């Protein structure tokens, strides 16, 4: 049965992107093929939905090509590996000194033994969606082969989107797979405080030497290093030494290194040697999946309509999404009503949005045109000049996402007759946003100008 599934996976891998294959199929298994009733094991309920909706026919064909009779395919969530969890607890209690990092203490060489990892963060409870699947695929590659393909791994995105969760999950997985690994997770503010303490106490060399013994260094909130020249220089030296030894380096930030004021150009360039991966705002489907997984984890009973309501009305970040979810569950328990009953009778009001004031499609067209240094008339024209076409597609995308207009109405606003052209333009921007980080920042800047 193992060979059958292995061969089927090899066929599937040829037909989808490497990122999608790694994300959705790497942790699957074939449980049973009895009487044509196929059972496939997956990690969690979110995988069930994605594999059933997106890849059912592809899986069926691949199995049939390997002489397996397929009448029905069902997906079952595999039970968690308790022995793996226990092994992590043993590692935590026996290897890692549990003395917390405190930025107010005097620096001591031994204090860096604390690895800073929080065991609650894992890939098992990190929900994969269209807003983060590429970054997750890269994270899995790092876990399989640290220090090779994605080194350094630079992850960026706004607050509350899961940066800390994902990089800590990488650290925990590396430690579970390699108990002797020396891993350090530290916010850049603690790195700065420790460095200052070390210099003050004449132990700068000891500080640097401790980092050279690491197998993996995880730096969080790198944006706070701005205007700290000596700390940048120290980090630059540590980075170079670890990189030359093929040690894994992971860095998070709320923006690209080139956008952080006063960061040395050499350092900014090195941090994105292996590319930069961003976490975007989750789409509606992603938010629903996150809330369903959280409800399952908590054993909470919440109606699908209530989940969809929360997902529809929280448009800031995942942290706010989960916060509203927890608040509604608490109020439900206190008042003796179901979450949906609370919502329907007006007992709760969920409306978290980054938007400050309403905008019109006309304003969007004007802002986009101005940003790309063309006129609104040029944007609405039939011109196929590259920069005008790109601006027109960006306007289509923003109007669609911000105002929720149909493709026919979007077409009318940007001077396009065929609504299929709008569909193509929106899909083009959505696809480009996966890896075109410059475009992503441009759209964010346009939104800031719209709502600022």
Written account of the structure:
By secondary structure, this protein is an alpha/beta fold. The chain has 20 helices and ten strands. Helices cover 54% and strands 10% of the residues. About 8% of the residues have low confidence.
Mean pLDDT: 84
What proportion of the residues form beta strands (DSSP E)?
5-15%
Distance between the termini: 58 Å
Task: Please give the radius of gyration in angstroms.
Answer: 25 Å
How many helix segments?
A: 20
Counting helices, strands and paired strands, the structural category is alpha/beta
Q: What is the count of β-strands?
A: 10
Major β-sheet annotation: 5 strands, parallel
Order of the strands making up the biggest sheet: 5-6-7-4-8
Helicity range = 40-55%
Q: From N to C, what is the helix and strand string?
A: HHEEHEHHEHEHHEHEHEHHEHHEHHHHHH
Gross geometry: globular
Poorly predicted ranges = 80-113
Notable characteristics:
20 helices, globular
Give a short synopsis of this structure.
By secondary structure, the chain is of the alpha/beta class. 54% of the residues lie in helices and 10% in strands.
Provide the fold topology.
Layout: H1 2-13, H2 18-25, E1 29-32, E2 37-42, H3 45-65, E3 72-77, H4 82-94, H5 133-144, E4 153-156, H6 163-177, E5 183-187, H7 188-200, H8 204-212, E6 216-220, H9 229-244, E7 248-253, H10 265-271, E8 276-278, H11 284-298, H12 304-313, E9 314-315, H13 318-335, H14 339-344, E10 352-353, H15 361-371, H16 376-379, H17 386-403, H18 407-414, H19 419-432, H20 437-451
Parallel strand pairs: 2-3, 4-7, 4-8, 5-6, 6-7, 9-10
Antiparallel strand pairs: 1-2
């Amino acid at each position: 049965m193992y060979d059958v599934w292995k061969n089927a996976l090899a066929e599937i891998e040829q037909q989808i992107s490497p990122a999608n294959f790694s994300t959705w199929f790497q942790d699957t298994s074939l449980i049973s093929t009895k009487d044509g009733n196929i059972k496939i094991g997956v990690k969690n309920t979110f995988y069930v939905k994605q594999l059933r909706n997106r890849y059912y026919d592809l899986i069926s064909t691949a199995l049939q090509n390997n002489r397996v009779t397929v009448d029905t395919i069902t997906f079952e969530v595999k039970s968690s590996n308790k022995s793996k969890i226990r092994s992590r607890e043993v590692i935590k209690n026996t290897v890692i000194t549990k003395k917390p990092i405190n930025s107010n203490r005097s620096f001591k060489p031994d204090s860096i033994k604390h690895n800073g990892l929080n065991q609650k963060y894992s890939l098992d409870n990190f929900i994969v969606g269209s807003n983060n699947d590429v970054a997750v695929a890269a994270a899995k590659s790092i876990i399989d082969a640290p220090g090779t393909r994605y080194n350094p791994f630079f992850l960026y995105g706004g607050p509350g989107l899961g940066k800390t969760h994902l990089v800590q999950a990488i650290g925990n997985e590396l430690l579970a797979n390699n108990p002797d690994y020396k891993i350090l997770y530290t916010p850049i503010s603690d790195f700065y405080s420790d460095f200052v303490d070390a210099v003050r106490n004449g132990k700068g060399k000891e500080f640097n030497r401790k980092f050279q013994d690491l197998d993996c260094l995880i730096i969080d909130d790198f944006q706070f290093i701005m205007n700290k020249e000596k700390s940048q220089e120290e980090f630059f030296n540590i980075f170079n030494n670890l990189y030359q030894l093929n040690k894994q380096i992971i860095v998070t930030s709320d923006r690209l290194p080139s956008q952080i004021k006063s960061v040395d150009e050499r350092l900014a360039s090195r941090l994105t040697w292996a590319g930069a991966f961003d976490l975007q705002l989750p789409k509606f489907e992603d938010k629903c999946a996150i809330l369903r997984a959280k409800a399952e984890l908590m054993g909470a009973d919440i109606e699908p309509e209530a989940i969809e309501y929360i997902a529809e009305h929280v448009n800031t970040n995942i942290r706010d999404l989960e916060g509203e979810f927890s608040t509604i569950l608490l109020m439900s328990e206190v008042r003796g009503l179901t979450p949906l009953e609370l919502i329907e009778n007006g007992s709760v009001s969920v409306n978290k949005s980054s938007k400050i004031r309403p905008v019109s499609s006309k304003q969007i067209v004007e802002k986009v045109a101005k940003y790309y240094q063309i006129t609104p008339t040029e944007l609405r024209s039939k011109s196929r000049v590259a920069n005008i076409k790109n601006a027109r597609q960006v306007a289509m995308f923003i109007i669609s996402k911000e105002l929720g207009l149909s493709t026919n109405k979007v077409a009318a606003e940007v001077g396009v007759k065929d609504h299929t052209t709008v569909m193509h333009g929106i899909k083009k921007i959505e696809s480009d946003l996966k890896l075109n980080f410059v475009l992503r920042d441009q759209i964010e800047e346009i939104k800031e100008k719209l709502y600022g």
